[in-house]
Amino acid sequence: MACAVKKLSARAAATLTAPGRHSDGDGLYLVVDASGARRWLFLFRWQGKLKEMGLGGLSAVSLSEAREKAAAARQILKGGKNPIEHRRTAKEERLAAVTFGVFVDEVVKSLSQVFRNDKHKAQWSSTLTTYASSLWDKPINEIGTDDVLNVLTPIWQTKSETASRVRGRIERVLDAAKAKGLRTGENPALWRGHLDKLLPARRKLTRGHHAAMPFDEVPAFMADLRSRDAMAGLALQFCILNASRSGEVLGARWSEIDRKMKVWTIPATRMKAGIEHRVPLTDAALSVLDQTEVVRRGEYVFPGQKPDRPLSIMAMEMMLRRMKVEVTVHGFRSSFRDWAGECTAFPREIAETALAHVVGDATERAYRRGDALEKRRALMEAWGAFIYGNKKVAR
pLDDT tens for residues 203-260? Predict the structure, then answer.
């Protein structure tokens, strides 16, 4: 009759010093290495061969926890499966379930105390939402150098500062994933010694770097644009009619639109200046919304291909390339500003406010409580009239 194995006690496990395997019974052993390190081991036979399954070090796994792990492994064996392979498969499934987008949310939450205000927190995640959308649904352990390059290459020279921020934020997210055991290997978004060998040196940001169309060419361009049946074309029309930034338009939600008051209210979290901005919607702009509402499918005014995602940040730029015009989306804001300054008598501050620029010093802004909505409405109506062929500016 076989002798019953004497079970280990928690005290014995903590004080054993003799190197070797110390049995707790049913295949569970405490291994004491020559260095004095202690770790748990589960021994079992699989297809006639003895297998060793590590269960963790004594400093991290208590005796009771090791027994629970060993019992779980025995149950898997009874089910006809190799517990080592089962654990590996379970880990792979767990990693596959953690996508880049899911982990970005976790990282942003953990960094909440670092951000100076809600605006910076929103900008941190919105840059990744906008520019790294191709990574969003990809398992974070599968993201490689090619994936990062696909994000950065289209904007590396045209949006240099933004591209640099995007790269740095991707690097930080992937570093955090590695620290939590969700990735292994080198960070594919690392610049020095990696991406600096694959991407050209960035152009330094200078004023006036956004190629703009002469304002007298905008009406003909808009006539061509309106003939094109594409969501990107509608977004670009809306962007030009409102002299908006591309990010403001692509992030537009139906909840921000008040058709009755003819106002689009952009929350502070999506504005460059971090201040809520009201946009007076002209009939021309509302006409664009009429067209997008016909195909409405979610909260975004200009939806992308993926469910519940906005149009890609590159969609409008690609539309310009297909139309073979060498200007940028942002450049149309310059076209608007040049037109307002040269062809109208609207005050400078009205045009600047229409562009959501901060006007005046802190004292002046403190005394100017309103946002001149109706005066800006008249300006934007005049801009629309000019675009649609009425060269006589309405006042």
Answer: 544 444 567 888 889 999 999 999 988 999 999 999 999 999 999 999 999 999 999 9
Q: Give the distance between the most distant pair of CA atoms in the chain.
A: 109
* Residues 176, 131 share a domain: yes
Name the nearest CA neighbour of 282 among 235, 243, 316, 334: 243
Specify if 102 maps to a domain. no
- The residues with which 50 forms a beta bridge, in sequence order, are 45
Structural domain ending residue among the three candidates 97, 125, 154: 97
CA distance 350 to 376: 6
Identify residue 152 by its one-letter amino acid code. L
Domain edge (last residue) among 97, 124, 149: 97
Q: ∠ CA(382), CA(384), CA(388), 5° rounding? A: 120
**Same-domain check for residues 68 and 130:** no
pTM: 0.50
Alpha carbons 321 and 211: distance in angstroms, whole number: 13
More confident residue, 364 or 15: 15
CA distances from 271 to 109, 135, 266 (A): 21, 24, 7
| 363 shares a domain with 227 | yes
Question: Do 317 and 271 belong to one domain?
Answer: yes
Boundaries of domain holding 382: 215-387
Q: Pick from 79, 83, 87: which is nearest to 45 by CA? A: 83
Phi-psi region of 42 (alpha: psi -120 to 50; beta: other; left: phi over 0): beta
Stated as kind and residue range, the H or E segment containing 240 is: helix 231-242
Nearest Cα to 43, choosing from 80, 74, 16?
74
Q: How far out from the chain centre does Cα 129 lie?
A: 3
Question: pLDDT confidence of 119, banded at 50, 70, 90?
Answer: low
What's the CA gap between 73 and 78, in Å, rounded? Answer: 9
In this structure, the answer to whether residues 250 and 336 fall within a common structural domain is yes
Q: CATH number, domain at 192?
A: 1.10.150.130
- The arithmetic mean of pLDDT across residues 164-172, rounded, is 89
Q: Model confidence over 124-140: pLDDT tens digits?
A: 778 888 889 899 989 88
Q: Cα separation of 239 and 245, whole Å?
A: 7
